[in-house]
Amino acid sequence: MSDNHKEHPTPKKYVQIAIFLGILTAIEVAxxxxxDFVGVFTDPLLIFLAIGxxxxxxxxxxxxxxxxxxxxxxxxxxxxxxxxxxxxVMIERAAGNFFN
Amino acid sequence: MSGGHDYPHxxxxxxxxxxxxxxFLSTEILFFGTLITTFMIFKGRDFPGIKLTxxxxxxxxxxxxxxxxxxxxxxxxxxxxxxxxDQEKTRVWLLATAMLGSVFLAGQIxxxxxxxxxxxxxxxxxxxxxxxxxxxxxxxxxxxxxVFLIGLWIIGQRQKGLSLDSGFNLEFIALYWxxxxxxxxxxxxxVYLI
Lengths: 100, 194
Description:
The complex is a heterodimer. By secondary structure, chain A is mainly α.
């Protein structure tokens, strides 16, 4: 059963969330152009920002944070399987098993 | 997305159609996960022909990304308006979402055309193939979403109103549309920025 009866955000809140997402996108683009200055932190920061945007859209716009736990598990299941696949392939790539 | 509702007659506690939609989206994650993984195998390696970094235009793609992000806002506002039984606003926001999606698609078509003219083609090398397959499939999903949105808007006009509980459901199309948006959030970072 749904164990969670949080109120959905108001239109004003949605606009605030969209502005926040826009700011995160602007930071991403700024990071791309300041890669020489930010150095090795650029890629981790870009990944962190993308994950942040992803979580905000899924949680608030798709209302997953207000949803039944079963729905959350199904969605997380797909994510976890995709990440496992990605990790295995990247390990194989790093080990040089795809290219001689 | 009308979260928090219980469905005691369903053994899962979730409306079956909604659960089906989430399972579908879960399989879509695997679909795009596979395409992204394939793209990443070849990213950063040297191949004959022009490179993606030589042809892409970050400011242009950034604006496209922003447009798609804002279409998620208009979509959620359409859903909110329907929950408040405001049919007029629902139709306006639906149309706005379809228009923003169309702008994104037009941008992608322009981008692909530019890349082709500069010599970065589907058959240039295996990396270019993975790029076009990945971004092309995303574009196809956006196109399907736009068709759904326009279809829903037409139904809303003809029936003088949409329903959250039955028929060609706005809630499921909204879920699909936000999913298309989150895929692009990942693609924008993985394909263009990193």
